[in-house]
Amino acid sequence: MAAEDAAADALGDLKDLKLLDLDLIALSGESLGCVTVTAAVMGRELVQEARVRLGNPRGIVRLLHGTQTLSESTPMGKQVTAGARIQCLVVAISVEQERNVVHAVLRGVVPGEDGWQVWECVESLAEVEDLSSIALPSGLRSLAFSSRFNQSLENANFPSGLTRIVFGDAFNQPLENVVFPESLKSIEFGRDFNQRLAARVPLPRGLQHAVSFLFKQGITPVTFPEGLKSITFGDAFNQSLVGAQFPDNLQSITFGRDFNQSLVNVQFPTGLQTLAFGRDFIRSLVNVQFPSGLQNLALGIRFNLSLVNVQFPSGLRSITFSVYFNMSLEDVVFPDGLLHLTFGDFFNQSLEHTVLPDSLQSITFGRYFDQSMRRVALPSGLKSLTFGDFFSQSMEDVALPAGLESLTFGYRFNYSLARVALPDGLQSLAFGYSYNRSFKHVRPPAGLRQIRLARGSSLSLAGMKLPPNVEVLRE
């Protein structure tokens, strides 16, 4: 009897080792090629092969033999014979299906038939709290951890196509032995992250954007990826940049609240286009070597130092001042190509002797600016002029540029425009809440297209002969 059982087992083993040549066919009828498997191979393995040959579609792959749907949990030898034609059908995944599978897997439930395919197709995960018990989906593109996540990533296996990682506030683990995928383009650290990014931390070569909130380590030993395009430092960063080696392709640097280091002798990358400072930056810009291609400069809340003798780069297009800046611009040399000038709330200096470049297209004043514009030489190329809430000066005898398209007054402005020479090209005219002057003797510009009034304003346009198709908005 024992001999007969042994013989039967041996025969079964031989059957399991039998090779099956199977033809995989797409729904369109296109051949996906022949695959050879043993009779003992489970249906799931063939589904995995079919997914690869179909280009890993974002859907559930079902295998059909005639009218029969093949089971993933049954050996192929018990479902088909050699030479069988297997049709590969791709079924779309519903939003509800994906949501249910993600919820189950993140709770530690192992996905069953269909479920594992849904999981592999997931492109974005959020609020991930534990990596120790799950294998990340092969199709994952974006990964965001929960605010409590603080596990080591030394043994993490990130998908090869992952492009974005966002860490929560609690994450503060060393990165020396972590292997990030080369596909990674953006990485964002939370508030508690404060690990050194020394040369031994292998940042991906394809990384383009990096953000860190409370990082306060020195960066002179850091080797940044050559493809890095933007870096944002967090509120606690306040380290010297002298000796830092930024990649030449870096386009944007943004500093947080605490940064207040001298920029003299700092070597900025040649490709830098945007430089933005945080609240506490109060350092002179005299003798700072800005890269010639810098286009946008934004100064922080507390910056209030003279700009006389500052050498702005010739390519600068925009300067933005924040709240406290209130220095005279009388002897400041602005670059000839400057397009946009934006002042913060406290700026209230006369511009009578200021040379504004003719290239300027927009000037925006903050809340407290209240200086006469009568003797101000406004740029010939100016298209937009915006005053803040406290501006309350007559516009009579003000030489508005012929090309001005937008003129905006704030809350307190309440002077008649009857004797103001509004340029014919003016398209938009806006008034604040307090304006209640008659328009009876105002000559509207021929090109006027829009008048904007403050919501709740009682201003009447009666008596004003408006051009056709002028839109009146209350906002």
TrEMBL record:
Gene3D superfamilies: Ribonuclease Inhibitor. Pfam families: FNIP (PF05725). Transmembrane segments: none annotated. It comes from the Eukaryota. PANTHER family: FNIP REPEAT-CONTAINING PROTEIN, FNIP REPEAT-CONTAINING PROTEIN-RELATED. This is Uncharacterized protein. It comes from Alexandrium monilatum.
